[in-house]
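Please produce the structure of this protein holding fe (ii) ion.
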Amino acid sequence: MGILKALTKVRGGYPGGWREYARGYKKDGVDPFDQPVSPDDRRSQIPALGYPEYWYPAVPDKDVSWKKPVGLRLLGTDVTLFRDKSGQVQALWDYCPHRGVYLSWGDCFWKGYLSCPYHGATFDGDGECVEFITEGPDSKMVGQLKAKKFPTATLKGLVFIWMGEGEPVPPEEDLPPEFFEGETTLVLNTLRYWHCNWMIGLENQSDSHNCFWVHRNSLLQLRSRTGGRARTPLGYRSERVNDKATIPLRGAEQYYFEDGKMPYKLYYPRAQAYWPLHSWRLLWTWFFEFFDKRNTNRERFDTPEEWRGMRLPGMHRLYFGGPSAMYTRWCIPVDKDLTRVVYFRSMRIPTKLGRIWETVTYKLYRNWVAHYNFSDQDYDAMRSTRYQYPEYLSATDSHVVAQRRLMTDYARGGEKFKTVEVAKETTAEKLVADYNNQVAAMKPEVAAGTSRLMAGSTRPVTSDMAGEQGDKDNVV
Ligand code: FES
Ligand SMILES: [Fe+2]
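Below is the modeled complex.
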């Protein structure tokens, strides 16, 4: 790259030719994020910078030294992290209350205290100004000046921050239960960035159908018979649990099954063609099926229902990468155009050796296979999603619909962001329900099995169920 640039300088002109700005100048290659405004669209009422009244993952504890503070932006707010006298990582608003400079550009000259780079105001872990170095020990600023503090908690090697204005809730309420379990529960983490809004990142995980399309050539899908195939035109029903999570109910996959099995190829009559185009991948799936069979016999990672599916404020939890592990993906707004993605892989492993093995294999390949090779394939779809324009949803977008409804109606502190009353049932929600009913009518026996709520019942899907089980009265 360096050589090319140098040559261009010699030649003159700019490097890219007409392609460079063919689509106009776009930062990170995409248009800035924008939201719809219609009260008929729930996306208009979800804050672009997230819901602050929650605990959020910040940084690995090991990345905060005794000497240098760390700067971090979450939910559009800059914080600085440093160690207090006891070694606990503390977070202050990255704003010196004296003249407003970044505290994160300062230093911890004295163990446990953070000094501002401008005039040396020095703060303890509570944000109290304990010394004002340039004014000497008689400074009257001491005890007067106060930096804004954000509560923190360090669990399993990760620092979490309470971003709210209100009193923090106990961390147990917002953070996955395995963070409070003993040392035999291992929680590994990975932090990544995506150039898209956090809602788009989060909805991507609720989007059931990209899995076998976008990822058809990922290593995980290549080893599976289901990779690259059509899935189902029937939407998943979702159930709201304790007003905190929404769980997709499985079973819709059965739609194209014949004799309990799904044919590998399907015929698309209008195009007069088959998909997938060829069956080469089946040559090696037998090898991996051996492992998969072994996996299905494993005991599932047990977790309460409200800690599965999409959980407020922005995580998804599911069995991905083996049933004995719980996968969590948490989309944290940095700015409206940038998302910090935090992954957890939680496992209960009784032996120390087993835990070391998991940690090593995670670093060697599991992390890459799941979070880079697989998940980053969604990156272009996410960053090119134009959120501000109308959508035309299908039955299979039902879990996305459910997720949006959970947020607008149940997110803690969410009232603050509501500018209009959203329609009780939006046009999109009606459409999703209608499509679901139409598809369900084509194969009622499959539709009846799509959820445990619907089990044994062939009654039509109501629009409330298109996305979620609206009222508990609806439960059958
Ligand atoms: S701005 Fe921080 S000490 Fe003056
Ligand atoms: Fe995906």
